[in-house]
Amino acid sequence: MAVKNVFGIFLIAGVLLVGSARAEGNPDQGLETWESGKLGVWNGTTSVSEVALSGPAYEAVSEKGSVANEEAAPKSEAATKSEATSEEGETGEAIEEVTIADPIEPVNRAMFQFNDKFYFWVLKPVARGYNAVVPEPVRISVKNFFRNVEMPIRFVNSLLQGKFKGAGTELARFGINTTIGVAGFFDVAKSKFDLNPYDKDFGQTLGFYGMGGLMYIVWPILGPSTVRDTIGLVGDTFLNPVSYISPIEAAIGVRAYEQINKTSLELGTYEDMKAAFLEPYIGIRDAYIQHRKELIKH
To answer: Does the reported pTM lie above 0.85?
Structure first.
């Protein structure tokens, strides 16, 4: 009876918030959280790897890298206009180049190299061993569990951004997955009810209210970030139930396990991304900034 009551509360609250958003004509759409867990590309909340390998972010960055290796051939004005029209037609809007200050580039490059070595020398071998022992369905269920636990991050930031449909969806997802989905190990909300998680974090919330990235930072282990996203990561930490596990060593162990599990599900993605760029540091930096910009826009 208690389980039914909890499920009912979450479901009703979710429906009310979703209904409120629809009544206001909120066009916000649910976005899947990209979490590759690859060191050097993971910022604690969302990853740039999948976006870097496809879509406008990758096209913009890889185009700059390709031009650096080729002699630019003169083009007619008509050809230039045609290409611009084609590009705009495919993406729905012209690709806007996004830049950010990188005053500590030598330090960032050193951290990038550290993260790169850490991935190949430590994280990848551990993830491959884990991958060989634990079946993929179990690893997917573990990922679902952690996503469900981190619901407060997405819920609170959806509210802070006025995305009431997203907040309602997150509440409904949590209620369904915690009960029918067996503590969140199965994403029943997505598979049966077509409710996708909303990728909202505090870094996006700060950007939503006009705060720029200010400066690019590469953190050891955590990977690419900005001043804004670093502040956001700290804020999200307070909303993550895992942060309150005691003692702190246990919390760190849980986060490390979560990261190993994520990496085991996407082995090879980081390698493909590095190979896609002539200059990996610049390519990953630009793709990350473009990706974060797109998330804030939505």
So the answer is: no
